[in-house]
UniProtKB/TrEMBL annotation:
One of its GO terms (cellular component) is mitochondrion. It is found in: Mitochondrion. SUPFAM superfamilies: FAD-binding/transporter-associated domain-like, FAD-linked oxidases, C-terminal domain. Residues 50-229 form the FAD-binding PCMH-type domain. GO terms for biological process: malate metabolic process. Gene3D superfamilies: 3.30.465.10, 3.30.70.2190, 3.30.70.2740, Uridine Diphospho-n-acetylenolpyruvylglucosamine Reductase, domain 2 (3.30.43.10), Vanillyl-alcohol Oxidase, Chain A, domain 4 (1.10.45.10). It comes from Scyliorhinus torazame. It comes from the Eukaryota. PANTHER family: D-2-HYDROXYGLUTARATE DEHYDROGENASE, MITOCHONDRIAL (PTHR43716:SF1). GO terms for molecular function: (R)-2-hydroxyglutarate dehydrogenase activity; FAD binding; metal ion binding. This is D-2-hydroxyglutarate dehydrogenase, mitochondrial. The lineage of its organism: Eukaryota, Metazoa, Chordata, Craniata, Vertebrata.
Length: 476
């Protein structure tokens, strides 16, 4: 963990005392964790690139407990790091110094589910996959799906405004989240847990907390609109020769599959090599420079199948696609999805990862992979591109044998400048967290950052909530 430049000074927060520990232990009836192994797991991020030094992990079960924790921390000037499943990829979920970790792990109750409206209300610590399994039993699904579904919490998803594999179909959490309950820094409980689709009464405050990465409040409960489970799901994996062709296939899929298209993902041949090499997954297709994963979901399998067949015939006969396979059976669908969903896991086995999550206009989206390959040459072990093509979101990952500061200096800020010049975003869906907060100016004008800083001061005047994250320090 020596590579991250911790070019940040600890702010003047109080340090946790024995008296504080006694207070928390009493409040939480023993759900204060000081076990070193558990603390280690909560201090280190999923990518294992950052390590904080918190000595205290709190596991509240109720909103009232979260409220009392924050009121106490605010009075005592103790810094707090909200934590869900700790799967975040930008260092937002782990402390930088000795911030108290407030985990939602024990806030995992489903509060209600309405089968008429499809509105689910649950506590923030529910694991995404558990929620989806619960809904599937009732013929519904969650409107989002991520490779980290087995660990990430819905509160963490909302706090990061996670995108993922279903955004193309069901839109962002900014639309599907109908209400939130949030505890503010001073312990105030803000109950905006509406389950209405339409509610234009004043400012939509919940939007402030969606994507705020725990810097404005702790989300304790979520109300979310869930779609029906589709009766027919099919997945196709296609190979093609060039990136331009993947775009042609995308256009064709929008026109021919229309309302049943539910995912359009892509990976390049290096990603395919990494998942096959490190996870021993089998590639069902012949070698191709690019692979596309298309999913369709609809209500009538005959109708959907016919549409998909027409589409596949068209893209194969005109040579856009060089090879392809299709699945309607659950196990086969899962096997195809694994080739895409498990890239992140495979890359971690490959070496040290420089991870970038970029939005760009579709026409230029893959160009940056080639630009970085040329720029870094043999200093990078691999430069790979994959992602949510249908959403204009590229995951550019650069792998090296070990961390190398010179390599990092060759990547940044050059990459961010390139993205800004091409009207992209330096963080499409992962957020800014600790790693990227100082690059916010590449994607937002100064006036916008200033308003964000003013909002932070209004909601968290002492700055105790997730300090050192998301916003650049005031001097910048
Ligand atoms: P954490 O990692 O614990 O926290 C993330 C941030 O949210 C932190 O800043 C934390 O302080 C804050 N936070 C957490 N809970 C709360 C709360 N209750 N209230 C306020 N703030 C809170 N992301 C995508 O967008 N799309 C993907 O497709 C995707 N795929 C992934 C695949 C893998 C294999 C992995 C490891 C990660 C992936 N991610 C993806 C990133 C990550 O899973 C998401 O950002 C996820 O939403 C984080 O949820 P979490 O519960 O793990 O939050
Ligand atoms: C994905 O789409 O697989 C995730 O966002 C994870 C990643 O970017 O590594
Ligand atoms: Zn992603």
């Amino acid at each position: 963990f020596t590579h991250m430049q911790y070019n940040v000074q600890r702010l003047g927060f109080a340090a946790v005392t024995k008296e504080d520990m006694v207070f928390f232990d009493g409040l939480l009836s023993g759900r204060l964790v000081t076990d070193l192994d558990i603390l280690e797991a909560s201090n280190v991020d999923w990518l294992r690139t950052l390590r904080g030094h918190s000595q205290v992990l709190l596991r509240p079960q109720t909103t009232e407990e979260v409220s009392q924790i924050l009121r106490y921390c605010n009075d005592r000037n103790l810094a707090v790091n909200p934590q869900g499943g700790n799967t975040g990829l930008v260092g937002g979920s782990v402390p930088v110094f000795d911030e108290i970790i407030v985990s939602t792990a024990q806030m995992d109750n489903i509060i209600s589910f309405n089968t008429n409206s499809g509105v689910l209300i649950c506590q923030a610590g529910c694991i995404l996959e558990n929620l989806n399994n619960y809904l599937e039993e009732q013929d519904f699904i969650m409107p989002l799906d991520l490779g980290s579904k087995g660990s990430c919490h819905i509160g963490g998803n909302v706090a990061t405004n996670a995108g993922g594999l279903r955004l193309l179909r069901y839109g962002s959490l900014r639309g599907t989240v109908l209400g939130l309950e949030v505890v503010l820094a001073d312990g105030t409980v803000l109950n905006c847990l509406s389950s209405l689709r339409k509610d234009n009464t004043g400012y939509d405050l919940k939007q402030l907390f969606i994507g705020a990465e725990g810097t404005l409040g702790i989300i304790t409960a979520v109300s979310i609109l869930c779609p029906r489970k589709s009766a027919a799901v099919s997945v196709a994996l296609l190979g093609c020769d060039s990136f331009e062709r993947t775009l042609d296939i995308f256009k064709e899929s929008k026109s021919m599959l229309g309302e049943i298209l539910s995912a359009f993902e892509f990976l390049d041949h290096s990603c395919r090599a990494v998942v096959c090499e490190h996870l021993k997954l089998r590639n069902p297709l012949q070698e191709s420079p690019f692979y596309i994963l298309i999913e369709t979901s609809g209500s009538n399998s005959d109708h959907d199948q016919e549409k998909l067949n027409h589409f596949l015939e068209k893209v194969m006969s005109c040579g856009l696609v060089t090879d392809g396979t299709m699945a309607t059976e659950e196990n086969k669908i899962k096997a195809i999805w694994a080739l895409r969903e498990r890239i992140t896991e495979a890359l971690v086995h490959d070496g040290f990862l420089y991870k970038y999550d970029i939005s760009l206009p579709l026409e230029r989206i893959y160009e940056i992979v080639t630009v970085m390959k040329d720029r870094l040459g043999t200093r990078a072990k691999r430069v790979v591109g994959f992602g949510h093509l249908g959403d204009g979101n590229l995951h550019l990952n650069i792998v090296a044998e070990a961390f190398d500061q010179q390599l990092l200096d060759s990547i940044e800020p050059y990459l961010y400048e390139w993205i800004a010049q091409h009207c992209g975003s330096i963080s499409a869906e992962h957020g800014l967290g600790f790693k990227k907060k100082n690059f916010i100016h590449f994607s937002k004008p100064r006036a916008a950052v200033q308003i964000m800083q003013q909002m932070k001061v209004i909601l968290d005047p002492k700055g105790i909530l997730n300090p050192y994250k998301t916003l650049p320090s005031f001097s910048q």
